[in-house]
Amino acid sequence: MNNFPTLRQLQYLCAIDTHMNFRLAAEECNVTQPTLSAAIKEMESLLGNSVLDRSNRKRIIFTTFGKEVLKTAKSIIPQLEQLSANALRLSEPLSGLIRLGVIPTIAPYLLPEILPLLQKSFPKMTFQITEDLSAHLVDKLNAGNLDLILMAFPYDVANFKTLSLYKEKFYCACLKDSFSNQTSIKPEKLKDHPLLLLEDGHCLRDHALESCKLQQPADQKMLSATSLQTILQMVAQGYGITLLPEMVIKSSILPKVIKILPLKNPVPTREIGFSWRRNSPQSENITAVTKVIKTGLKF
User: Fold this and answer.
1) pTM, whole model, 2 decimals?
2) 241 within 8 A of 194, measured Cβ to Cβ
3) Helix or strand or coil: residue 218?
4) DSSP labels for 226-257?
5) Which phi and psi angles does 59 have, rounded to 5°?
6) In the chain, ranges of CATH 1.10.10.10 domains
7) Pairing state between β 269-277 and 148-153
8) pLDDT (tens digit, 9 = 90+) per residue, 37-54?
9) Any idea what DSSP says for residue 128?
10) How many H helices and E strands in the chain?
11) What radius of gyration, in Å, describes the C-alpha atoms of the chain?
């Protein structure tokens, strides 16, 4: 009788490859680190070969055989997921788990509207939410650890299917005594003021600079933060101005000392939409979910 590794063992191995860290891999798989380690050793015993090179305790190294097993696992798991999804769809349409990734500059502002709509429309579906930066979400989608991403464009998702929901405007947030009595401002006028942006890695930073045709001068002092709420507090304290997407303005209570100025034509925008894998085993559910959101929300 052949000794085959279990699906769970293969999933553990893929999680190790994704995180290159046993603790993080165990967290993703909802098991303890000793359980994950024991499962990998059991798989090695079944196969009669090591998949991990344990000569270096400081970093994870796959053996040549381990890379072969990993390649096979990445091929097998999506096929089994497709089979399971097909079976569930036939027995009970519009049910099961959807793993949704959302970027931080969208999650707190759209999820309060989206989740009640999804729960009402799909009572037999469970939605697991992951909030992370675009690059990390795209990696997880590519690896099969997410089914769908709600994100902002432009972004390189050429390998995925996409659906645009809408475009939203950027606005300038500044102290009330800034820019005299102007009721709107040209984007190029912003370059003369200290600009507060999210730190590197947030696509909103790139979208804001690109859409407003701005470049940060090398000699200009710039402060950054990890959240838009922190940025707003910095603006309120007089550290500079910032650029906010429309959903933030509609959904947030802004400090009283801040005013919002529209930007003059051409008005800078970012595009909000979905990305998912081509031939995803969840394609039918994803199509239904994205259709409900696109038609059910007022953008």
Assistant:
1) 0.71
2) yes
3) coil
4) SSHHHHHHHHHTTS-EEEEEHHHHHHS---TT
5) -145, 160
6) 7-89
7) antiparallel
8) 999 999 999 999 999 998
9) E
10) 10, 9
11) 23
CATH code for residues 91-165+271-296? 3.40.190.10
Q: Give 3-state DSSP helix, strand, coil % of the chain, rounded to 5.
A: 45, 20, 35
The token pair that represents 126 in the structure block: 């469970």
Candidate CATH numbers 3.40.1370.10, 3.40.50.12780, 3.40.710.10, 3.40.190.10; the one for domain 168-269: 3.40.190.10
Nearest C-alpha neighbor of 278 from the set 155, 163, 130: 163
Q: Which two tokens stand for residue 141?
A: 């989608």
What is the location of CATH 3.40.190.10 in the chain?
Answer: 91-165+271-296, 168-269
CATH number for region 7-89: 1.10.10.10
Beta-bridge partner residues of 127: 98
CA-to-CA distance for 131 and 134, rounded, in angstroms? 9
Task: Say if residues 172 and 260 touch (Cβ distance below 8 Å).
Answer: yes
E strand spans, 154-227:
160-175, 195-198, 224-225
Residue-level length of the chain: 299
Encoded tokens for 295: 């038609």
Cα 39 from Cα 14, distance rounded (Å): 13
pLDDT tens digits for range 142-200:
888 899 999 999 888 888 999 999 999 989 888 888 887 788 888 777 777 778 877 66
